[in-house]
Design brief:
single chain; two-stranded antiparallel sheet; alpha+beta; 251 residues; 37% helix; Restriction Endonuclease; elongated; 8-stranded mixed β-sheet
């Protein structure tokens, strides 16, 4: 039986200048906030805790609904199932990618330059032309930018990347309703991706309040994640916008 709930941001925490970075890109922050506030379809279930039954919802269905809200609000800006490999971000909306991020806002020009340098630069990929063409076949909307940067320097030389004022930030994100230990994996994953890419911000969406109670026990929560960030503040050098989402059931 499908019901409706009202989703809203219950709590939020900004780590390592995340607030200033998001304020510099207010339009993006507003669109994310709009996606995390409002009516949403939910799929109810019965939860049993120590033999006591209570109303609960299916996390998988909630995850899908949240992704749909993000897609509607951010349109072509957002990519889903994003995997970082050797400084390049690959993405696919069709299937889940183990070890990747749930979503990302990318600077596509910067990403294409990184791919071009792998395929045709100083350390040319063995099957560079094939890899380049396959990426563009999956993302034809990037063809114009790709053609513009491909022949800027000759094959065998890296194309130097120039920082452009007002360019899109690099934001990666996770929607996490799984086992609490997954939070540690997620932060290691973003630290690894940051080695070759200067990630501007991690958006980490987790449950809090009533929504936390409506999901399974022992999951990643707002308070648990905030504690991890504070305990490892010197290690987690990446700006983090921790978002605790809550929900009320609409009759």
């Amino acid at each position: 039986m499908i019901k409706q709930g009202r989703l809203f941001v219950g709590e939020e925490y900004f780590h390592h200048h995340a607030f200033e970075i998001l304020e510099a890109h207010k339009e993006l922050k507003t669109k994310f906030s709009n996606a995390l506030n409002g009516s949403i379809q939910i799929s109810p279930r019965v939860k049993q805790t120590k033999g006591i039954e209570s109303f609960a919802i299916k996390a998988d269905h909630l995850n899908v609904e949240l992704r749909n809200h993000l897609k509607i609000n951010l349109r072509e800006k957002i990519k889903f199932e994003v995997v970082e490999e050797h400084g390049v971000f690959y993405f696919s909306a069709e299937k889940s990618s183990i070890g990747g991020f749930d979503f990302a806002i990318l600077n596509h020009r910067k990403n294409l330059i990184a791919l071009r340098n792998i395929c045709f630069g100083n350390l040319r990929y063995d099957q560079g032309t094939r890899k380049w063409n396959r990426f563009l076949e999956s993302n034809p909307e990037l063809m114009e930018v790709a053609e513009e940067i491909l022949n800027k320097v000759e094959i065998g030389r890296n194309l130097e990347e120039k920082h452009e004022k007002g360019s899109s930030p690099l934001i990666v994100g996770e929607i996490q309703f799984g086992n609490w230990a997954l939070a540690y994996r997620d932060f290691f994953k973003v630290l690894k991706a940051d080695v070759q890419n200067s990630i501007d911000c991690l958006i980490y969406i987790v449950p809090t309040g009533n929504l936390e109670k409506m999901l399974s026990d022992g999951i990643v929560t707002y308070e648990k994640t905030k504690t991890i960030i504070q305990d490892f503040a010197k290690v987690i050098s990446i700006p983090v916008w921790l978002v605790g989402i809550d929900m009320e059931i609409m009759q």
